[in-house]
Write a structure and sequence with these properties.
By secondary structure, the protein is an all-alpha fold. It has a single domain, classed as Phosphate transport system protein phou homolog 2, domain 2 (Methane Monooxygenase Hydroxylase, Chain G, domain 1). It has helices at about 5-35, 40-50, 50-70, 75-110, 120-140, 145-150, 155-170, 175-210. Helix 6 packs antiparallel against helix 8 (about 175-210). The longest helix is centred in the last third of the chain and has 36 residues, at about 175-210. The chain is elongated and about 70 Å long. The protein starts with a helix and ends in a 6-residue tail after the last helix.
């Protein structure tokens, strides 16, 4: 097996991962949009996409294991394969959170929102940017950019804490059970977005390991 052929197989894995990443970022944008606009049809469409991402993750896992078993890659190639394998898992879990958000859109339905949704879209845009930047760092093999992605998670955690405090304060001010349920659902959305930030951080950490061989935790 020539090195050129092996390199093409690695490139194929990376291509699959990046296509999955782009689709996941698009799904995240649509999931939050479905909530903000209370677009129930869009939410239902997003939920139906879940199986596709499960299959993409499974195919990447299968292809990675097959490449390891059949091609006996060198240590540096194993770092690439392991990065693809683990990043694929993070992307699949982000897709799960997108589905979770779409399900909450359906739960809220056409009920009047307790307040205009401003902080949630801002937080969603920030975590989407993190994921995209993490994938770009992978393509560019840029450990500096990957570290920047990881450091941005502190900002996401702060946004989540601020939103958590605001929403829980609203719970204390009302006895309306329907309003309380909606607030709890919005708290779940904020938590899902905070978890997306964690997955983006994982991607950044794996890029750092890929480039430097050092495992750093943020």
């Amino acid at each position: 097996m020539t090195r050129t052929y092996f390199d093409r197989e690695l490139e194929s894995l990376e291509g699959q991962l990046l296509r999955m990443g782009v689709k996941v970022c698009d799904l995240l944008h649509l999931a939050v949009d479905s909530l903000v606009r209370q677009d129930l049809a869009l939410a239902e469409k997003i939920i139906k996409e879940d199986d596709m991402f499960d299959q993409m993750d499974l195919k990447l896992e299968t292809d990675c294991i097959k490449l390891i078993a059949l091609r006996q890659p060198l240590a540096k190639d194993l770092r690439v394969i392991s990065t693809v394998l683990k990043t694929s898992t993070d992307l699949e879990r982000i897709a799960d959170h997108c589905v979770n958000i779409a399900e909450i859109t359906l739960r809220i339905g056409a009920s009047q929102l307790i307040k205009p949704l401003i902080d949630i879209p801002v937080m969603a845009e920030a975590v989407e940017d993190m994921v995209r930047a993490g994938l770009k760092a992978f393509v560019d093999r840029d450990s500096g950019q990957a570290k920047t992605v990881c450091l941005q998670d502190d900002t996401i955690d702060h946004q989540y804490e601020e939103l958590f405090l605001e929403l829980t304060d609203l719970i204390r001010k009302t006895n309306d059970w329907e309003i309380i349920i909606q607030i709890v659902n919005l708290l779940f959305v904020a938590r899902f977005l905070e978890r997306v930030g964690d997955h983006a951080t994982n991607i950044g950490e794996r890029v750092i390991y890929l480039v430097t061989g050092e495992q750093e935790k943020y």
